[in-house]
Amino acid sequence: MILSRLARSGRGGIVLLVLGLLAALVLPWLIYPPVALDIACWALFAAAVDLLLGFTGLLSFGHAAFWGGSAYCTGLIVLHGGMPFPVAIIGGALFAALLALPIGLLSVRLTGIYFAMVTLAFAQMIYFVANQWRDVTGGENGLQGIPREFLGLDLSDPFFFYYAGLPFVLAGLFAAWRIVRSPFGRVLVSIRDNPARARALGYPVERYRLLAFVLSAALAGTAGGVFAIGHGFAALDGLYWTTSGQVVMMVILGGIGTLWGGAIGAAIVVQLQDFLATAGFEGVGIVTGSIFIVIVLLFRRGIWGTARHLLISRRQADPPVSPAAGAAEEPVESPEPAPAPASPHPAGD
Amino acid sequence: MLQQAFNGLVGGSFYALLALGLAVIFGMLGVVNLAHGAFYMLGAFGAFIALDAFGLNFWVALVLVPLLLGVAGAVLERLFVRRLTPLDPLYNFLFTFGLALILQDLVRREYGVNSQPYPRPPELAGTVDLGLFTYPAYQVFVLAVSALMCVAVWVVLTRTRVGMIVRAATERPELTRALGIDVGRWVTPVFGFGIALAAFAGVLAAPMRAVNPLMGADLIITVFAVVVIGGLGSVFGSVAAGFAVGLVSALGNLYVPALSQITVFILMAAVLLWRPAGLFGREEAYR
């Protein structure tokens, strides 16, 4: 069924899918396996954020709460519950979704920049809670020594664990893709493009936004759980606001509203940070911050977004293949995200 | 109890100064400045460097550092922020996030994460008898000077021609322009002024708080919550919420110490539930 859908969306889709899967499978052969796992986790995290930013028009600057919160929950389930890690990861994802419910309920009443600020603030609250609730979270030390043994198999070798964690990441990415392509996803896009019209058509806009927020949090939680098991610890800085910023940066670098672009952004950023750390460069923030600024100033379409834009403009030069299929395939016509409430204060030049 | 309330007000004066700068910038440019905390940190480091490298005392720093950083902010607005203001406000938010990362790590590379010592100015080293209790003179000074600053900005905004233009441009930019006022001319100075306020708060913080590269990072998010409580874009709301949040957190700390850092976010949640636009915000401001 999936394949037939893909086939309908053109052969290019299948080729890309196969290439992507192949890349995911051989990655730990090509680069240091723990880094490969990091890339996979951040790719899913980025897709989760893009689900909101690119397809719902909401910039969450507080997704660290779900990534980090799930990391803690996953770790606790393994450490104290003695559960196998797959159960723990699912538990962590559910916890993230549960956490997202009250946060989302309050935040979706706002949009645009206000939404970003409020989610940022709530995430910081979770950070402070984790910092103070030492008995459970270990405070600044975090949770350490999370084992990753499964049915008697020792998965402590990062190379093997990569393949144990990958199914979760792929399942998460698949879920994100399904959500975007579902009727629900189409409503989200219409809300992104014109909330007033969606409301007029009878869609409960806030409820859709809330559901998207919770789903996105669950995906981010899945990624955070795999990350925690993969590293064997859950750390406080996973909850910090710079984590939220970093994932947004990956999304923009890859291309907002492209879903898969985030994986490219994740690969580049994680590799770069690994390179800088190995080279002994202090002040990774200087480099990542500079990249961020350059992207925001000059390269807002991102890598995937730019590639797709080139492709589309080329295709449009050719005689149209099938306008209906084309419209269904490209959910994002505008490369700019969230045509949010147009700034009431244009730069007065 | 009273003393704790006083502590709260002193803490609140930093919230108020930072929130005021954020609100002024947001009002004029529609930009939420995530680097505001980084400029606060730079203000404190500016005071430290002025003393350490140039032997300039606290009073000189209190004037000079905000001035310099304000100019730097104005340059920043001209070079970068201006390019992004016509776009979705989220882009400037992200721009200032990148900027905050850079500034923080530049200082961290230079000075490490440990706190730098900064002495109290000798004129304010003692304590003041406030009748019911004695209190460090420096803290009293901080509270007084912050309150004065907020009042001064308030007076400028409401009683002078400049303030009138800024307020008009904040509320109805197109209409103001149509009335023949060059709004664009005021954008850069207002941005610089907002940054200068952050730097001013930073210099004030240097003698009583740990001067380290991360001092602004936590604070700025709390100030965001303060601004949401007060109503984004409402100058009065931001200042009032700043002092109020300081007070409530301090008193909360007295009764439930575990919640000290979290109080402000709980307040924010309550306000969002009750009035999503903030206590003093207008409904249209967020839709």
TrEMBL record, chain A:
Residues 317-349 are annotated as: Disordered. Keywords: Cell membrane, Membrane, Transmembrane, Transmembrane helix. InterPro entries: ABC_transp_permease, LivM-like. Residues 334-349 have a biased composition (Pro residues). It comes from the Bacteria. Coiled coil: none annotated. GO terms for molecular function: branched-chain amino acid transmembrane transporter activity. GO terms for cellular component: plasma membrane. The chain crosses the membrane at residues 12-31, 43-66, 87-106, 112-130, 160-180, 210-235, 247-269, 275-299. It is a multi-pass membrane protein. It is found in: Cell membrane. Pfam families: BPD_transp_2. This is Amino acid/amide ABC transporter membrane protein 2 (HAAT family).
From TrEMBL, chain B:
Keywords: Amino-acid transport, Cell membrane, Membrane, Transmembrane, Transmembrane helix, Transport. This is Amino acid/amide ABC transporter membrane protein 1 (HAAT family). GO terms for biological process: amino acid transport. One of its GO terms (molecular function) is transmembrane transporter activity. The keyword Nucleotidyltransferase does not apply. Its main location: membrane. Belongs to the binding-protein-dependent transport system permease family. LivHM subfamily. It is found in: Cell membrane. It comes from Nonomuraea fuscirosea. One of its GO terms (cellular component) is plasma membrane. The chain crosses the membrane at residues 12-32, 39-69, 89-107, 140-157, 186-207, 219-248, 254-274. It is a multi-pass membrane protein. InterPro entries: ABC_transp_permease, BCAA_transport_permease. It comes from the Bacteria. CDD domains: TM_PBP1_LivH_like.
